[in-house]
Structures are given as C-alpha cells and as structure tokens.
Amino acid sequence: MTIISSVLLIFFISLLGGFLSFILPHNKQQFINYVLTITGAYLLSLVILHLLPHTIEHYGTPALIWVLIGFLIQFVLQQFSHGVEHGHAHHHAHLPLKEFAVIAVGLSIHALSEGIPLAETQVNQATFLSFLFGIGIHKLPEAFALACLASHAFPTKVQRIGIIIGFSLLTPISILFFAESEVVQGRFFQYLFPLVTGAVMQIASSIIYETASNNHKLKLIKLLLLLIGFSMGLLSLFIHF
Predict the structure, then answer these.
(1) Is 21 helix (H, G, I), strand (E, B) or coil?
(2) Residue ranges per domain, the chain?
(3) Three-state SS for 214?
(4) pTM to 2 decimals?
(5) What share of the chain is helix, strand, coil (3-state, %, to 5)?
(6) How high is the pLDDT of residue 183?
C-alpha cells in the first residue's frame, strides 16, 4: 500500500468516526468500550511484536530510553486531552470553549505523532500494514469522542463538521510531512520513532486498564475481547503481505 493510500484511508476513517457522533447516542458507551478493549490489546501487541523490535534493530538498545520518554510525554499530554485519544468522551451539558481548546491541542499533538511510524521508510510492509490497521481502528472512537465533546462546545453542526474535518487532516498531514522530509528521515527518526512507540504503549495500556476492568474486577467478556485483540496482533506475525 502506498503512502497516498494510507493517508486517504486514515482521513476517511477519522471522518467516519466523527460523523458517527451525529447518528449514535453519545451516552451509549458500552459498545464503544468493547471496541476500545480490542483496540488497546491490538495496539499493545503491535508495540511488543513490531515497534519495539524495529526500534532495537534499527536504532539500537539505547533508543529504548526514548521509548520511556515517549511514554512519559504521552502521560503528560493525557492530562490535557482528558483521555479523548483513548476514545472516552466525558459528557457535559456545556463544555467551555477554553476547556475544549486545551483538550483539542493535546489531542492534536497526539494525532500528529500517530503519523510518524507510518512515514518510516525502513519499516517492513507487514509492520506498516499492521500499524496502519491499528491506527485505523483507533481513529474511529478517537474521532467520535472528540466530535461528542465538540457538540457540547459548539452550537451549530457547521462548526462541529469543521472540527471533525480539521482533526481528520492532522494524521494524514503528519504522514506526508515526515515521509517526504529527508532531513527528518536522516537525523531525527532515531528519536521520533521510539518516542511514538512509547506513546502508543502508554495509550494502549491506559485503554486496557480503563475499559477492561470494572472496580478491578475482570469480566469474562472483557477477557475474551483482550484475547481477540492479542490474537489479531499475533496473526500479524504470520500473515505476510
């Protein structure tokens, strides 16, 4: 799959997630939690089976320090975005514009970082497609959650559609920029790729913790969903494109 194809795919999946907020009730969180549990397990398996091995192989063991830094950076960003990148939208009768702006900035930084692994020219095709699929299914609840919050901050549909389109463009723009920038590819990817790997690890582990347990009690359905997500990640090792 070409860079252009992946850009278009991510863009339209993000649009779909955002526009679903006009159709689906915002308070029906159970189904979204099921999707998130599978997504979190799949993303974590991709980090362990693909992104970490790629980091060590191409950038060496010292790059793992940047993985830890990326984990911490994402943890800090999460305090501003309120976990919207996990697909969680906390419902408000009215969301002040200033508070929405803080959430949007944090989520925008996260969305830009998601394009970095997809712009890595040295990554093999199996890893690229596996991560593209992971980002794709992650974008649905992420865009849905942002659009739900926008509905509490902006009174008109036109404004909310503008927010959805703007957000949907961020990761595609990031992919194109980093893929075409020879300076970034040559000098900075040894830091950026492990940083994003750590960020994805933090997001995946947070999703699993927040959605897979209820008062620290693991339900059978959630365990099955985790196994589905992990199995999808394992299959990516054996399916060669």
Answers:
(1) helix
(2) 3-20+30-238
(3) strand
(4) 0.78
(5) 85, 0, 15
(6) 58
Where does residue 78 fall: left (phi above 0), alpha (psi -120 to 50 degrees), or beta otherwise? alpha
pLDDT at position 8 is 92
Mean pLDDT of the chain: 82
Tokens of residue 131, six digits: 């991560």
Q: Residue 215: left if φ>0, alpha if ψ -120 to 50, beta else—which one?
A: left
Q: What is the CA radius of gyration of the chain?
A: 17
User: CA-CA distance, 132 to 9, in Å (whole number)?
Assistant: 9
Q: What are the DSSP E strand ranges found in 114-185?
A: none
The DSSP code for 63 is: G
Ramachandran quadrant class, 171 (left: phi over 0; alpha: psi -120 to 50; beta: rest): alpha
Residue 207 has pLDDT above 70, yes or no: yes
Contacts of 114 (CB under 8 A, 6+ apart): 135, 138, 171, 174, 196
Positive or negative: CA dihedral 159, 164, 170, 172: negative
The half-sphere exposure of 209 on its side-chain side, counting CA atoms within 13 A, is 7
